[in-house]
Structure formats: structure tokens, C-alpha cells
């Protein structure tokens, strides 16, 4: 996530975050109190909810947003779009491209689940984790530049290892859009929700989100578990985000748009000979 935050009405947004996180905490407590044996994520069983360190993370998030002047990058209606799905699926696997002051919020929305952040700037990772050491984050070295976005689409069409019939990213050095430098955990897990709010994509030498969008599409298409993969893409008012979303995430999979955030439900590819879109 870009390390820029909206200054308008920060008190209202901060209080809204407290409300959302408090609501998630109350729901989790209610489920424990009723002895609910199983919580489902995309149709798959998950272990029962139990009290533990996750509650401490939620309380830490409430304290943070109640006392901080820094507000999340997304507006409240955009956050709510993701929150509603997280609330229905949690505990689940949640992969977030970007690390920021709002990361504690995202992690607190997925109690007892796995939330992993991928960030391009190692120094920024240290800064954020200093204040929120309970977050899990990996650094990632992108091999793309925003200025090459058009050329990369041409490369995708010509390179066989980028093809939808191949659809792999681990070890895929030939396809420049494949994130082939990630930790094994990213490849080994199936992610129920993927949020793309990074890397930076607002100046020519920035990495851009082309590879993140392509790789998220590949992960979703290769899903073996029941259900769909929810993919959220922020900043769709920008040319490259919109262009790559239409190429790989597909308009037919777009289920809702709020502000500058698009929500896709991507099913597994039933026929790997078909194109992405």
C-alpha cells in the first residue's frame, strides 16, 4: 500500500475503524459464547474459535486507531466492501500486496486466520513492524516498471510461459509478469482473499501492479479447494490498473465496485486451455 493517507475527516475514519474492529471482536466473542463448533471459509471447515493472542491483536488495533491521527488509504465504504467478505469467511487465508498503517486493521479483521503482507520496501517493513510486531510481512523485489506496462502486455501475448494454458508463477523466469521470487508459503497456500493495494504505481520507475494482478489471477485459476478466490484491486481509476484488471481478472468476474475499489470473484479454471478473459 502506498505510504500516503487521506487527510480529510481523519477523526471520523478513525472512529469508523474502531467500530468495525469492535464489531469483529464482538462477533468472535459471540461465536465462542455459543460454542459454535465450526466456522466455514469458502465451504471448507476450519477449527473452532478460541480465545488467544488474536484477541490481543484486535484490542491493539482498536487502541491504535482510536488514538492515531494517521488514517487508512482506502475510504470507509471501500474498507467496508472487503470487511463484509472477511467477516463472512474468517478465519481464512488473506494475502495483501502492500504494508501500511492500515495493515493492523486488515489483520484484525481475520482473527485466527492467516494474513500475510507483501511489501517492496524493506525499510518500510521495519518501520511498520516496529509499531505492530504481531503482523507478518515479507519483502518482495519486483522486476517490472510502470513505464513498461504496454510492452509487458505484448510480452505476455508472445511468451508461451505467460500463457493461460501454462498458468504457473513459481520458478517462471521466462514470464516477466510472474512473481517468481516469493517465499514458498505464498505458493504453497491457497488464498481465499487477495488484496492488491501495492506496489507503487504512480510514477514511471515505480514497479506498478502489473505483476501482482497477473499473479493473483494465476493463483485464483489454480485453486483446488472448493469455492472462489476473492480479489480486490484498488486505484482502478488509473489506466494500468484498469487495463490489467480487464486483461486478467475479467469484467465477467467483477461483482461490485465501490469508489476506486473493484471486487472480483474468480473461480478455478475448469478448462486451462481457455484464455484469462
UniProtKB/TrEMBL annotation:
Pfam families: IRX15_IRX15L_GXM. It is found in: Golgi apparatus membrane. GO terms for cellular component: Golgi membrane. The chain crosses the membrane at residues 12-31. GO terms for molecular function: methyltransferase activity. Signal peptide: none annotated. Keywords: Membrane, Methyltransferase, Transferase, Transmembrane, Transmembrane helix. InterPro entries: IRX15/GXM/AGM (IPR006514). One of its GO terms (biological process) is xylan biosynthetic process. It comes from the Eukaryota. It is a single-pass membrane protein. NCBIfam families: A_thal_3515 (TIGR01627). This is Probable methyltransferase At1g27930. The lineage of its organism: Eukaryota, Viridiplantae, Streptophyta, Embryophyta, Tracheophyta.
